[in-house]
Design brief:
100 residues, two-stranded antiparallel ribbon
């Protein structure tokens, strides 16, 4: 992931998803949806407490659309809680990645 000066129409969200979200293909699901939309950058990773964390930057509409997909997740997942935090964009660019 590269950093550059973010354009004015970019938002950044940190999303923590809880429930049955590890071991069910959730990170791959997130990456697939994020990369299917141009202009989204960020990453998704498992947290030690069983949650999944996603950080995404991009235009407000596509970011919100991704958040709505995260509420559902893949077929075997069950999302019981999701926290979305607004953050200042840092200029992420490059492909959306799956981290550890």
């Amino acid at each position: 992931m590269n950093l550059s000066q973010p354009p004015d129409n970019v938002v950044r969200r940190r999303i923590v998803i809880r429930g049955r979200v590890q071991g069910v293909g959730y990170r791959a699901f997130v990456a697939r949806h994020a990369t299917s939309t141009a202009d989204l950058a960020g990453s998704v990773r498992n947290l030690d407490d069983g949650a999944v964390e996603c950080v995404v930057e991009g235009p407000p509409g596509p970011v919100q659309a991704l958040i709505e997909e995260l509420r559902v997740g893949p077929g075997l997942a069950h999302v019981s809680d999701m926290r979305v935090t607004e953050e200042a964009p840092v200029g992420l660019s490059g492909p959306f990645t799956i981290r550890g």
